[in-house]
Amino acid sequence: MPYIPHLHHRRSIRLKGYDYSQEGLYFITICQQDRECLFGEIVDGEMLLNDAGKMVDDVWLKIPERFPHVLLHEYIIMPNHFHAILEILGSAPAVRATLVVAPDKAAALGDILGAFKSISTVEYIQGVKKCGWPTFNGKLWQRDFFDHIIRNERSFHRISRYILNNPKNWKGDKFY
């Protein structure tokens, strides 16, 4: 089918005109493509990561190695989605050779999350082949992600509590 702009155009959910590479705190949510529970389960209000969930955890914690201008805050891997607060620092320290972006430019939020989704997808595929993890349909993660720019300390603390309490509230979660 040929590309038809008014039918195939996806409207961006990013804040128009906002520079997502600038210093700031961002609350992000990434969902598994079909919202399948591939990363573990909630038992008695606690998230128990399976091997795939532990892999996602490991990939997330390595983000600052790839992007030295990023600081990770609270996060939670849920059975079929992921919440985190990520901070882009004002001045990027010496950029490592493994970065995909130009050394004189800080990576934007989309670049960082794109790398996370790509690396975790490759790792998950290896887990399917070597360890018998459940397969997924097409893509591991949904194409886009939700973000919220955290603008004050009160919002930061409210979102941090939300993330930390997410497993306890799983039955009422819209992703359940």
Total of helices: 5
Helix content: 25-40%
Whole-angstrom Rg: 17 Å
Q: What oligomerization state is this entry in?
A: single chain
Side-by-side strand order of the widest sheet: 4-5-1-6
Low-confidence blocks of residues: 94-104
Class from helix and strand fractions: alpha+beta
What is the first-to-last residue Cα distance?
35 Å
The major β-sheet equals: 4 strands, antiparallel
Shape: globular
Summary keywords:
176 residues, alpha+beta, 4-stranded antiparallel β-sheet, two-stranded antiparallel ribbon, 5 helices, 6 strands, 31% helix, 21% strand, globular
Topology:
Blueprint: H1 5-8, E1 24-31, E2 40-43, E3 46-49, H2 51-61, H3 63-66, E4 70-77, E5 81-88, H4 109-131, E6 146-150, H5 153-165
Antiparallel strand pairs: 1-5, 1-6, 2-3, 4-5
Summarize, please.
This protein is an alpha+beta fold and 176 residues long. It has helices spanning 5-8, 51-61, 63-66, 109-131, 153-165, and strands at residues 24-31, 40-43, 46-49, 70-77, 81-88, 146-150. A hairpin with a 3-residue loop joins strand 4 (70-77) and strand 5 (81-88).
